[in-house]
UniProtKB/TrEMBL annotation:
Protein name per Swiss-Prot or TrEMBL: HTH deoR-type domain-containing protein
Domain HTH deoR-type residue range list: 389-426
Gene Ontology MF terms: DNA-binding transcription factor activity
Keywords for this protein: Transcription, Transcription regulation
Domain Schlafen AlbA-2: 3-108
Keyword Transcription regulation (UniProt): yes
Lineage: unclassified sequences, metagenomes, organismal metagenomes
Statement: the UniProt record of this protein carries the keyword Transmembrane helix: no
Length: 466
């Protein structure tokens, strides 16, 4: 049996291996074998009986825990088995905190150590009290905004409008023993970056991954960041098609506004602020990518997000405040809402993935418009077909042949080239195949954009890391 999250082999005993026991104790427990090689084969260990007597005392004296130490006698030699249970409290080896991750041991330092200690205490980062900051240091306009939004969303009583700031913070559980919590600083302080490094948002417009054309930074408390970012995105970065119904001006944006807002709210609420890295929004001609430093809850995958799931906020106090003003839901429905909003507007479902130490949400817009198709250097038939059959949502080989009076082989070559350009998805066998537009294929298959792209064998080999 190879080494794993819960198994470690050592051929001889050294006192420094107490660090490995410490790592098991701070993680999910595990077993350390002394007298086995890296492949788990017994090689025997000298003085096994003496180790059987000495090790329990060393473990207890240095680490402060009790572990089961067992002697096994075999034909190949004797070996020691040390069984370590996970501990509810942090365990240190001479002031060092070690943690078992995968089949390796890591010494925890800095932000990782802070996070680990908070977790062992049953606390979250945003609930930690901060000294030397008073309620008078907070921004009154932020309180006023919160009250009005909360009452409007029907998640705060109207009495809240006249409550003192101290009472509001207390009701939101943002104070502890006369200290303000970190969440209170991020939510209501005029300049939270003085106390939390990297607590801001960056937006950039990219012609390509290496060609940044312009950018903005949004600072202030979290409410200001959300509102200013949405305003900037939909006035400067995202285009709108304008039409009129009588005297009324109608604006239809390239992306559903509420879906983008939901993604932004989630990024701000669930960001891991120990990373000291701003939220980054990369806007391209055909997509928007929103990234926040952080990770999924333990034992969760991207597939977990796509299914019905409970709400497990990374920052419970920040999330509670966001819920009270209608920014987020408390039932884990955000991903489902974004998928539905994109489907309703004929866009591909957003792409969700974990990469570059953070979580990405990627929106892709309707790519079937002349300016974008022109850049792909398609032939005239291909461009015309995409625009002509767009409303129909699919093309057949016979329709393509008839419209352009061409041979079947030419038609198939044209259509296959459109598949390679990620413009169509083939459904069915060759003779009966239909070539589907993405806005038709995605709702039909009920899959994420990544899955459909994989079916079509056109998933991009790399993604932006901006």
């Amino acid at each position: 049996m190879p080494e794993s999250q819960s198994i470690e082999y050592k051929s001889v005993w050294k006192d420094e291996y107490l660090r490995w026991i410490c790592g098991f104790a701070n993680a999910n427990g595990g077993t350390l074998y002394i007298g086995k090689d890296d492949n788990g084969n017994v090689v025997g260990v000298k003085n096994a009986k003496k180790l059987l007597e000495d090790l329990p005392n060393k473990i207890t004296t240095i680490l402060g825990i009790v572990a089961d130490v067992n002697l096994h006698e075999t034909k190949q030699g004797d070996f020691i088995e040390i069984v370590v249970e996970p501990q509810p409290n942090p365990v240190n080896y001479k002031g060092e905190y070690h943690y078992r991750s995968g089949s390796t041991k890591q010494e925890l330092k800095g932000a990782a150590l802070d996070k680990f200690l908070l977790h062992k205490q049953g606390r979250k980062w945003d609930s930690v009290p901060i000294p030397n900051v008073s309620i008078s240091d907070l921004k009154q306009e932020a309180f006023d905004f919160f009250r009005k939004k909360g009452v409007k969303s029907n998640r705060l009583d109207e009495d809240t409008l006249t409550d003192r700031n101290e009472l509001l913070l207390e009701n939101l559980q943002l104070t502890e023993n006369s200290y303000l919590k970190r969440a209170a600083i991020l939510l209501f302080h005029p300049k939270p970056e003085k106390l939390v490094t990297g607590a801001f948002i960056k937006i950039g417009y990219f012609e390509s991954d290496s060609d940044l054309r312009f950018q903005d930074e949004i600072h202030g408390n979290l409410f200001e960041q959300v509102e200013k970012t949405m305003d900037l995105l939909f006035t400067k970065y995202i285009k709108a098609m304008i039409s009129y119904e009588g005297i009324y001006r109608i604006e239809i944006y390239e992306y559903p506004k509420e879906a983008v807002r939901e993604a932004l709210h989630n990024a701000v609420a669930h960001k891991d602020y120990t990373g000291a890295t701003p939220i980054q929004i990369s806007v391209y001609k055909d997509k928007i990518m929103i990234w926040n430093f952080g990770q999924l809850p333990d034992n969760w995958t991207i597939e977990t997000l796509q299914k019905k799931h409970s709400s497990v906020p990374h920052n419970p106090d920040i999330s509670n405040a966001f819920f009270r003003i209608g920014y987020i839901e408390a039932w884990g429905r955000g991903i489902k809402k974004m998928n539905e909003q994109c489907a309703e507007t004929g866009l591909p479902q957003p792409l969700y993935y974990y990469e570059s130490s953070g979580f990405w949400v990627e929106f892709r817009k309707d790519i079937y418009f002349p300016e974008y198709l022109k850049e792909l250097r398609l032939n005239e038939r291909q461009t015309d077909a995409l625009l002509f059959f767009k409303e129909q949502g699919e093309i057949t080989t016979s329709e393509y042949m008839k419209r352009y009076n061409i041979a079947e082989r030419t038609a198939r070559n044209d259509l296959n080239e459109l598949i390679k350009n990620q413009l169509l998805i083939r459904e069915g066998e060759t003779n009966l195949a239909k070539y589907l537009f993405y806005n038709t294929a995605l709702p039909k298959f009920r899959r994420s954009f990544a899955e459909v792209a994989e079916v079509a064998e056109v998933l991009p080999k790399s993604k932006s890391h901006n």
